[in-house]
Amino acid sequence: MTLVDYEALATAAQNARNLAYAPYSRFQVGAAVLTASGKIFCGGNIENAAYPLTMCAERVAIYSAYAAGEREILALAVVTATDDVASPCGACRQVMIELAPQCEVLLLNLQGDERRTSPHELLPHSFGPSQLDEANR
């Protein structure tokens, strides 16, 4: 099993934050995921003038891992420039529940504050594939 180097993951997320495209909100977010194979995939939020088309950093990182064929995400780090650590939006929480349900989530700010949590703690009583399976019985 791959050990999680949280410092390296946090650094990767901070670097991804610097590459975020956030000309409208100016709220840059960086994320990095560590997969079971030991690879790190990064993402920054990418905004669009048609606001609903904006993609959060967490989803960019998770989708990048999946696009590369990775299916087991061990950890996810998210970095924001907020006074306290910021929590992922609901859409990102839903994606984590389905694509990275067992990962550890590390929320960080630029001052070094951190909180460790999980997708299930962030989105209790979530909707997921098991409900679809029940509906199709």
TrEMBL record:
What is the organism field in this record? Candidatus Chloroploca mongolica
Pfam families from the UniProt entry: dCMP_cyt_deam_1
Superkingdom assignment? Bacteria
Which Gene3D superfamilies does the protein's record reference?
Answer: Cytidine Deaminase, domain 2
EC number of this enzyme: 3.5.4.5
Q: List membrane-spanning regions.
A: none
Task: Give a short account of what the protein does.
Answer: This enzyme scavenges exogenous and endogenous cytidine and 2'-deoxycytidine for UMP synthesis.
Name by which UniProt lists this protein: Cytidine deaminase
The GO terms describing molecular function are:
cytidine deaminase activity
